Inverse folding.
């Protein structure tokens, strides 16, 4: 998968159906995540604004986990830890970044094949579709905003771009 495909958002869907709106939300999340992690430096990963806060790498791991939960929710896979416990935390930025964007691409692809009535069948930990929305899906965007803030505080702000239009930064 070419990560650069997330640098710009695709054209919006032609019709405002429930699945089209969710698809656009996932497109927006992937676009914002792409730019929140673009030009992120290895030394930035340890930054945390205070002792009770997650570091940038901890936020990225959490976002990765949420993207995986979202993907599993749409695939019908159980949302349980694998046998033998959770895998070791991913430390490598590119592995985290690629895995998260691949999960979001899979979520987007699954939504693109769904009908609106299919949404009622989505379950996360035996909870209905609404938990998918207010849980992992919406939580990701809040944490992406935290990454943006932490980067600014660490002295490495995200590249300027136009999120409402979904445009990549202009080259100087």
């Amino acid at each position: 998968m070419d990560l650069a495909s997330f640098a710009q958002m695709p054209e919006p869907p032609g019709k405002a159906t429930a699945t089209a709106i969710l698809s656009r939300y996932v497109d927006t999340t992937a676009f914002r995540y792409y730019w929140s992690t673009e030009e992120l430096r290895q030394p930035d990963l340890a930054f945390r604004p205070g002792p009770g806060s997650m570091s940038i790498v901890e936020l990225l791991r959490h976002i990765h986990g949420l993207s995986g939960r979202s993907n599993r929710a749409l695939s019908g896979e159980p949302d349980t830890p694998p046998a033998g416990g959770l895998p070791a935390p991913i430390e490598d930025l590119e592995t985290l970044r690629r895995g998260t964007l691949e999960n979001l691409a899979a979520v987007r692809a699954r939504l693109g094949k769904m009908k609106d009535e299919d949404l009622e069948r989505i379950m996360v930990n035996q909870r209905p579709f609404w938990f998918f929305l207010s849980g992992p899906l919406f939580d990701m965007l809040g944490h992406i905003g935290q990454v943006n803030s932490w980067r600014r505080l660490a002295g490495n702000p995200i590249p300027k771009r136009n999120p409402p239009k979904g445009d990549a930064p202009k080259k100087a």
User: Anything to note?
Assistant: Helices lie at 18-37, 56-75, 93-113, 129-154. The longest helix spans residues 129-154. The CA atoms of residues 66 and 136 lie 5 Å apart.
